[in-house]
Design a protein that fits this description.
The structure holds 2 protein chains of 2 kinds.
Chain A: E1 7-18, E2 21-33, E3 38-42, H1 49-57, E4 64-73, E5 76-77, H2 83-92, E6 94-97, H3 101-104, H4 111-115, H5 117-122, H6 127-140, H7 146-149, H8 159-171, E7 177-181, H9 189-206, E8 209-214, H10 217-223, E9 226-231, E10 234-240, H11 241-246, H12 251-259, E11 309-311, E12 314-316, H13 319-322
Parallel strand pairs in A: 3-8, 3-9, 6-7, 7-8
Antiparallel strand pairs in A: 1-2, 1-4, 4-5, 9-10, 10-12, 11-12
Chain B: E1 2-3, E2 8-9, E3 28-32, H1 39-46, E4 58-59, E5 62-63, H2 69-76, E6 79-82, H3 96-106, H4 113-126, H5 143-155, E7 161-165, H6 173-190, E8 193-198, H7 201-207, E9 210-215, E10 218-224, H8 225-230, H9 235-243, H10 249-253, H11 285-289, E11 295-296, E12 303-304
Parallel strand pairs in B: 3-8, 3-9, 6-7, 7-8
Antiparallel strand pairs in B: 1-2, 4-5, 9-10, 10-12, 11-12
Helix pairs in contact in B: 3-4, 5-6
The chains are: A alpha/beta, B alpha/beta.
C-alpha cells in the first residue's frame, strides 16, 4: 500500500464556542495510527481527547469547528472531503463507539435492524441479508441467543449487551479503524473486563486498528501499544505504553501515575495528589498549561509554552525534561 | 419498586436481603459491589434514609429503626452522609454559608449569628477551602471544591459516623487523591468511623481497614482489606479483583484474567441458592439448592458465603 500510516493526524486545531467565549478544545494535536495497532488517548474531562476523535470523524457539535490541520486516512485527506464522501468513510472504513450505549441506539428500532443498517446503506444488501449478518455479528461479539436477540429492542438489553451491539454495528462493514470513546466507563467492572477482552480479541483476530480514549490508566496499560497523554487540549506526552508508564517524561503523567491508588500496592501509603484543579479552558495560563500544578516548574514554564519534542524514548512537552532533568523517583515500575 | 407519576407500588425488590454487618468504632469499612447490588441502599438504610422492611440497625447499642422522631433527630447529629454527585447534592440557590449553616440551625448547634459564622469558617478551614468562599454559590466551584463543601456539611454536626457513598467517583482522576487524603486526615483528627461505599476496588482497598463485598443484595465476603486482596475466598471477589486494570503495562500483559460470563443477576428475580452461581466458574448443583451462609473461612476475621471457596 502506498500510504505510510493508516491514519495521520497533522496539527489539528478545533474550536468550540461556549457561553463565555471560544475554547481552543484541540490545540495542535498530531499523531499517527498504523494498521492493527491500538493507540490510547488519556486525559481528564475537558482535556480534548473526545474532541480529537470527533475532529477525525468530522462529527464535532454544531458549536465546534476544525480551524486548522489535516487528517489523512489511507492516503485520503478527510478534512478536504465533501460531507457525502465523509459519510461513506464513516459508515465503512472508520467506526466509532461511544461511552453511553443507551443513547447511541435508537429505542424504537429492533437491535438487529440497527446493527444491519450500515450494510443496507453502504453495501446495498437487502433487509433479510442484513438481519442475517446481524445474527453473525452478534455471535462474533458474544451476544448469546443471537437469532432471538436481533428481534429485541435496545431497552431489553443490559448495558454490557448494548455496548456489544454497538461494537457489532461498528464491525459490520469490517472497518480498518475503530475509535472507542470511553467504551467501558458506564459499565460495571466485570462487564468492563468482558468488553475489553472483546476489543482485544477483535484487534488480534481481525487486525482492526483501535484508538481507545479513556481516563483510566489501568485500561491503557492493559490494552494499548502506544499512548498519548492530553492536557488542556494539547498532547503533553506520547510514546510506547511501557516507556511512558515506566518512565514518564512529563510531570503531568508522572503526577497522575503517583496519585492513583493501586490494587497491587502492598503497604498503606498516603496518596500523592496533584495540587489544584484541571484548567479552566476559557482562561488558560500562558506558558505551559500544567505550570500552576507542576511540582517541577521553573521560571521559564510560566512564560513560554514548550513544544512537543523527543525526550529519550518518547515525546514530551516540558521545558524541564527537555533540559535533561530526570523526573525524581520516576521509576514507578 | 414504584411506577408511574403517582408512585404506585407495583412490586418489591429486595435490594438488600438479609445483610448482617458490623462496623467497628474508628474503622473504615469498605463496601464494594456493582451497580444495583444494593450497596447504596444498605448505606441509606443504616442512616434510616430508607426504612428497611425488616431487621435492626444498632448504633452505639440502640436500634435506630424503632426510634421515635425526636430521639432519631438527636441521633442524626452523630451520623452523616457524603454523596457521590457534588453537583446534584448542593442546592444551587444557597450560599456555602447557608448550606453549612442549615445543619447547624436544625440541630441548634450555633446559638448566635456570630457563632454560626465562626463555625462555618472553621468547617471551611477543615476541608481546605478559603474562609471567604462562604458567600459564594455552588456553581462557582469546581467538582473537587464542591465535594469539599459536601464533606464540610457532613462534618457540621460533629458526627462520629459518616457514610461516604461513592464520594470520589464523579471527580476527575487528578482530584480523587486530594479527596481521599482529606477523608483520611479528618478520620484521624476526629476519630471518625466510615462506611465507604464504592465500586472502585483500588480506592476501597487503599482507604479501608475491612471490606465487605456485595452481590445482588447479599454480602458474599467480609475480610480485612489486605487478606481480601491476597486471598479472596468467594469466586465473585476473585473475579472482581482480576477485572480491575492495574496501571502497569508489564504486569497487565501477563495477568491471568477471570472473565465472567453473562450479566449481573436481577434483584427482582434472583437465582435460587447462591445468587452468583449463574456466572460462577466453580458452581456445582449444590449451589442452586440452598444458599450458603456467611461463614468464617480463614483465621477469625475473614468470612465468605460459598460452598466451594477459592484456595
Amino acid at each position: 500500500m502506498a500510504f505510510a500510516h493508516l491514519l495521520e493526524v497533522d496539527d489539528i486545531h478545533s474550536h468550540l464556542t461556549v457561553k463565555d467565549g471560544t475554547v481552543s478544545a484541540v490545540n495542535g494535536v498530531s499523531f499517527t495510527v498504523d494498521a492493527g495497532e491500538t493507540l490510547g488517548i488519556v486525559g481528564e474531562s475537558g482535556s480534548g481527547k473526545s474532541m480529537t476523535a470527533l475532529s477525525i470523524m468530522r462529527l464535532l457539535p454544531r458549536s465546534g469547528s476544525i480551524v486548522r490541520g489535516k487528517v489523512t486516512f489511507k492516503g485520503r485527506v478527510l478534512t478536504e472531503l465533501s460531507e457525502e464522501e465523509m459519510e461513506s468513510i464513516r459508515g465503512t472504513e472508520i467506526a466509532m463507539i461511544f461511552q453511553d450505549p443507551m443513547t447511541s441506539l435508537n429505542p424504537v428500532y429492533r437491535t438487529g435492524w440497527q446493527v444491519g443498517e450500515p450494510l443496507r446503506i453502504h453495501r446495498h444488501v437487502d433487509t433479510r441479508t442484513s438481519i442475517k449478518a446481524a445474527v453473525d455479528l452478534f455471535k462474533k461479539v458474544g451476544i448469546p441467543d443471537a437469532s432471538k436477540r436481533v428481534g429485541e429492542f435496545p431497552h431489553m438489553f443490559s448495558g454490557g449487551m448494548r455496548q456489544r451491539a454497538m461494537i457489532a454495528m461498528g464491525l459490520s462493514t469490517s472497518p480498518s479503524l475503530l475509535i472507542a470513546d470511553e467504551p467501558t466507563t458506564a459499565l460495571d467492572v466485570t462487564i468492563q473486563a468482558q468488553i475489553l477482552e472483546l476489543l482485544r480479541t477483535l484487534n488480534r483476530d481481525y487486525g482492526t486498528a483501535t484508538i481507545l480514549i479513556t481516563h483510566n490508566l489501568g485500561v491503557v496499560a492493559g490494552m494499548c501499544d502506544r499512548v498519548i497523554v492530553m492536557y488542556a487540549g494539547r498532547v503533553v506526552e506520547q510514546g510506547r505504553t511501557e516507556d511512558v508508564f515506566a518512565r514518564p517524561e512529563h510531570p503531568y503523567t508522572w503526577s497522575l501515575l503517583r496519585s492513583i491508588p493501586r490494587l497491587d500496592a502492598d503497604e498503606h501509603e498516603p496518596l500523592k495528589p496533584i495540587d489544584g484543579s484541571p484548567p479552566d479552558m476559557i482562561r488558560l495560563p500562558t506558558g505551559c498549561k500544567f505550570t500552576p500544578r507542576c511540582p517541577f516548574a521553573i521560571a521559564r514554564c510560566a512564560k513560554e509554552e514548550p513544544e512537543l519534542l523527543a525526550v529519550r524514548d518518547q515525546l514530551s512537552r516540558c521545558w524541564v525534561t527537555q533540559g535533561g532533568v530526570t523526573l525524581d523517583g520516576a521509576d514507578l515500575g | 419498586m414504584r411506577s408511574g407519576v403517582i408512585s404506585r407500588v407495583v412490586g418489591q425488590i429486595r435490594a438488600v436481603d438479609g445483610v448482617d454487618l458490623d462496623i467497628r468504632q474508628g474503622e473504615t469499612l469498605g463496601l464494594v459491589g456493582e451497580s444495583g447490588c444494593g450497596k447504596s441502599t444498605l448505606g441509606r438504610s443504616i442512616l434510616r434514609l430508607v426504612q428497611p422492611t425488616a431487621g435492626q440497625v444498632r448504633f452505639k447499642g440502640r436500634d435506630i429503626l424503632r426510634m421515635g422522631s425526636r430521639a432519631m433527630r438527636r441521633m442524626r447529629r452523630d451520623m452523616a452522609i457524603i454523596f457521590q454527585d457534588p453537583f446534584a447534592s448542593l442546592d444551587p440557590r444557597q450560599t456555602v454559608a447557608d448550606i453549612l449553616g442549615e445543619a447547624l440551625d436544625i440541630h441548634h448547634l450555633a446559638r448566635t449569628p456570630r457563632a454560626r459564622k465562626e463555625r462555618v469558617s472553621e468547617l471551611l478551614g477543615l476541608v481546605g477551602l478559603a474562609t471567604d468562599f462562604a458567600g459564594r454559590y455552588p456553581h462557582e466551584f469546581s467538582g473537587g471544591q464542591r465535594q469539599r463543601i459536601g464533606i464540610a456539611r457532613a462534618l457540621a454536626v460533629d458526627p462520629s459516623f459518616i457514610v461516604c457513598d461513592e464520594p470520589i467517583s464523579a471527580l476527575d482522576v487528578s482530584i480523587q487523591a486530594q479527596i481521599i487524603n482529606l477523608l483520611e486526615q479528618l478520620q484521624e483528627k476526629f476519630n471518625l468511623t466510615y462506611l465507604f461505599i464504592a465500586h472502585d476496588l483500588s480506592v476501597v482497598k487503599h482507604i479501608s481497614d475491612r471490606i465487605a463485598v456485595m452481590y445482588v443484595g447479599k454480602v458474599v465476603e467480609v475480610s480485612p482489606a489486605r487478606d481480601l486482596y491476597r486471598q479472596p475466598k468467594h469466586p465473585y471477589t476473585g473475579s472482581l479483583l482480576s477485572a480491575i486494570p492495574i496501571p502497569d503495562p508489564r504486569l497487565e500483559r501477563h495477568r491471568e484474567r477471570i472473565i465472567l460470563k453473562g450479566d449481573v443477576a436481577s434483584p427482582m428475580n434472583p437465582p435460587s441458592g447462591c445468587r452468583f452461581r449463574t456466572r460462577c466458574f466453580k458452581a456445582q448443583p449444590r449451589c442452586g439448592e440452598t444458599e450458603p451462609a456467611l461463614e468464617t473461612v480463614n483465621l477469625g476475621d475473614h468470612k465468605a458465603a460459598c460452598y466451594f471457596p477459592l484456595s
